[in-house]
Amino acid sequence: MKYLSLIVLLFTNVAYSQDALEQQTQQAFQRAASVAEPSIVRIQTIGGVDLIGKLLTSTGPTTGVVVREDGYIITSSFNFISKPASIIVTLPNQERFAATVVAQDDSKMLTLLKIDTKGLRPLEPTSKASIEVGQWSLALGRTFDMKFPNISVGIVSAKDRIWGRAVQSDAKISPVNYGGPLVDIHGHGIGILAPLSPDRQGVSAGVEWYDSGIGFAVYLEDIYASLDRMIEGETLKAGLLGVSFEDNGPLSGEAVILKIRPESPADQAGLLVDDVVVGINELPISRTPELKHILGSKYAGDTVVLKIKRGAEVFEKSMILVGELRAYEFAALGILPGRDFEAKGVSIRQVLSETVEGVLKPGDVIVRLNETEVNNRAELAEQLTNIEPEATVELGLLRNAQLDEGKIETVSVKLQAFPHARPDNVEPQTASTPKDPVTAKTGRFNQQVPGEEQTSEEKNFWCYVPENYNPSVSYSLVVWIHPKGDTRESDVLAGWKELCQERNIILVGPRAEDVSGWALNEQEHVRLASTWAIENFTIDPSRVALMAQDDSGVFASELAFKYRELFRGMILIDSPLRVAPPDNDPDTKLLICFVTKEGSTFKEAIEKTVTALQKRFFPTDHIIETEPTQSFHPETVHELGIWIDAMDRL
Amino acid sequence: MKHLCWILMCYLISTSMLQAESIPNVIDGVQPKVVKLFGAGGLKNLAGYGSGFLVSADGHIVTVWSHLLDSDVVTVVLSDGQRFYGEVLGTDSRLDLAIIKIDSQNLPHFDLKQAVSVGPGARVLAFSNMFKVATGDEPLTVVHGVVSSKTELSAKRGRYKVPYSGPVYLTDAITNNSGAAGGVLTTYDGKLLAMLGRELQSEESNTWINYAMPIPELQGAIEDIIAGKFTRRDPLTSTNKPEAMFSTLDFGIVLVPNVVFRTPAYIEAIQDDSPAAKQGLKPDDLIVFANGELVNSIQNLEQVFAQAIPGDDLQLIIRRNEELITVTFPIPRK
Known about the structure:
The complex is a heterodimer of chains A (650) and B (334). Chain A contains 13 helices and 36 strands.
C-alpha cells in the first residue's frame, strides 16, 4: 500500500514535468553563462567623439571575448566607433590592462585587441555545422555587472545570414552586449555579437535593429580560422571580384555577369560580360545568391577558383580577391537628352560639351551606340556604364531632316569623364498644355503615407505639385529634409514655387516625428513619401533628389546612401558630408551638389568633402553664395534648378 | 527495499524541482493581484494610464510615482472589471514610489514578505497594462524573459534621468513601454520580485533599458506609507553637497587644454616638487581611472577631484604606453 501511494504521488508529479523542465532550463541558462564567463571581458574607452552621424556614441562599458590565452581579445568594431584615445580591458578577476588594437576585420566589423598578460581562457567555439535553428542561444555582455555577465536568452533564428557571415538570434542584442559572445546551452561560443546589415556596410549599420528580435553574431569558428592573419596585424577586408550580376534581387537566377570592373580580379582573369559563373571552389552555383553567400565570408587575399560557362565551353579560372576596386568612373557623351518617352531612340535636347559640339546637334536622335541599338534613354545610360571615359564610340544618328526616311548617319565621338559641374545654362522645357483635363491633385497639400494612416498626425508630409502640372511631361522630384527645429515649409515653398512651375519640379516635404530631429527609423517614412509621389505623378527616376540643410545633411546622406535606387541626387546646403560615402556604383549614379554661404564656418570642410567625393568619381558640384541671405537666395535657387534639370545628362 | 528507495529518491528529486506550478496557473494566480490605472495625462508623450499591484487585502496598491497621479482621483480597475476611485495615500520620490488606496476588502494581493530575489539568467514574467490594451475585466499583458543582470541603476548622479538610484533587475523582456511602469515582475512560479520601472534610456549605451525595482528595496517605504509613519525624505532639502574642494592643479597636475566634449585626461606638465612629481607622474601620461571610476574626459576627472574628501586617499590609474600604473594621493585637510 505504501508502494502504491508513492507511485501515485510520482504519477501526479508527471503532470508537472513541464515545470521541472522550466526549472532545469533556467539552471541551464545560468550554467551556460557561468561556463563562458571567464572568457568575457569588459572594455572601456577614453576620449573620442560623441556623435557619429545621428548616433550618439556610448560612453558606457562594452564587452569583448578572449580568443587566445596570451591576451588576444576579439570584439565588435562598433565599440570603437568614437575613435577613442585609449582602450582599457578589465578581466573577470577585476585586473585591468591597457589594450592595443592589433587588427580589424572590416568585412565582419570586428576588432582584435591585445593586452599584455598570459593564462587567459579563450572561449571554446561550437562548430558551425552543429548549430541548429531553434536551439537556445544566450547573448552575454559584461556591461552592467563585473561579477556576472548580463544575459539575454533567445533561439537561433537562422544560420548563414549576412551573406554567410553570421548567425541570427532573437535574443536582445544591442550596444550592451555588442562584442560579447552568443553562446549555446553548453556555454560554447556560437559567435561574437555585432551590428550587421545585409544591405549596408559600415560600423553602425544594423544598430537600428537593436533589441528588435533581429540580431547577429559572427561565427566564432570563422573568427578562429582567420585569427592568425589578424594577429599578424592584417586588416581583413571583404574579398571582391569586381563583377556585378544580372538582377541583384533575391530571386535572381543564374549568375550571368553583367559588368566587369576594369583592373579588377575578374578583369585580370579574363572574364567577360555574359559569362556565367557555375561553380566556386568545387561547389556548384545555380543562382547568384549562392555565389554571394560563399563570397560573403571570403577576404581580400583569398584565392577562389571560379567555374565559368561561356557559350558551350566550361572552364576554371583562379583569382585572388581584392579589398578595394578602382573607383568607378562614369563616362559621358556631353549631351542633355530629350524627354520624349514615346519616340524611339534618344533625342538630343542640348549639347553640353565643346568636344562634341558640331558633331552632335540638338534634335539629333541617337539610335545606336557602337553595335548596340538604343531604344531609350535608360538603355543609353546603361550602355555608357560599360564604356570607359576617353574611349571613342560610334553613334548612329537620325538627323532632323531625315527623321522620316529613317536614314542612319554614323558619327565618331570621344567620351569624356562625367562632368562634375552643372552646365552654364539649361533652357527650361515648357510644360505644354495637357491634352486631357488633369485629375491629379495640384498646388500645396498635405498627404499621408499609405498604410501609415494609423500613426500619429505628425507622420504626414506636405507636397507641392505645380498648378500647371501635365502628366505627359516628366517631372523632377525634390525631397526636402528639413533641419531640426523647423520644417521651413513656407520658406521652401516661397523660394521654390516659381522654379517648380518653370522647370517641372515636384516638392515633397516629410516631417520628422519629433521636430527636434530625425530619428534613424524615420528613413522608411521618407522613402514611402518619395515613393508615393513617384507612383502618383509622372516623375523621371533619374531626377529624384534629396535636399537638406545644416544638421539634416546627415540624415539625408544616410538616406541617399541607403536607397541608392531611389535617390539619384542630393543637395546639401551648408552641411559637409559627415557620413562616409559608399563606393561609386555604376548602376545607381548619385549626383551631389553642395551649397555654401561665403564665410560659412563649414566652407573649408565642404570644400574638402567636394574634393574627396570628386576623387571617388561622384559627380559633385558646388554652389557658393556670395550674398549672405537668411533664406533661399533666388540666384541659388536658379542655379539649383539648372543642376536638377541637368541630372539626367549623359 | 532497494526498489522503494529508488522510487523515494526519484520522488524527492522530482519534488525538489517541482516547487513551481504550471505557467498558466501561475499567471491565473497573479492576474487578480495586478490592476489597471487611469488618471491624468493624455498629453503628448504622457500616457494617461498605468499599472499597479495590490499589497493588502484592504486595497493598498503600489505603483510608480508619476504624473498619472497628479489628478485628484485615480481610477483603479481590478482584474474582475470592478472600478474604484483610488486616493493617493503617500509617495516616496526617492524610490519613485506611490501608494494608492481603494475602498474595498478581501482582495487578493501579494504578500511583501514573500518577495524573493533571483540572479541573472532567472526566468521571469512581467505583468503590466502596456499601451492600455486591457480594459474592464481583461487581464493584463504578460511577457516573459530572463533577468539580464542585477545591478546599480545609478551610482553617479546625472547618469540616468530617474529619481530611483538603488539596485535594479534588468530584464530582456521588453517592458519599456507606455503604461508598463508600476506593473510587477515575478518568477516563473509567480513569486513577487520587483516593480516595473519607467520608460528609460540609458545614457551609457544610448539604448532603452528594461528595469524593475526589487521589492526588498521598496518594502520599508511601502509599509511606512501604509502605516502612516512615512516621513518625506525630500532629496532637495538634504543636499549638503560639499563645495568643490580640489582640482588637479592642487596636486601639481597640468592637464592638456580641455577642447572637446570628451578630451581625454592627458597630463601636459607636472609642476616641480608637487605631490604628482613625487609620485612620479609624467607628461603624456593618461589618467584612466580615478577612485575606481573610469575617467573618460577631463571634465569627469575634475569632478572626482572636486568631490574628494579631505583625509581620504585619491587613487589614480595612469596609462603610460602599454602599462597601467596605480598611484595614491593622500587628500590634505584644507
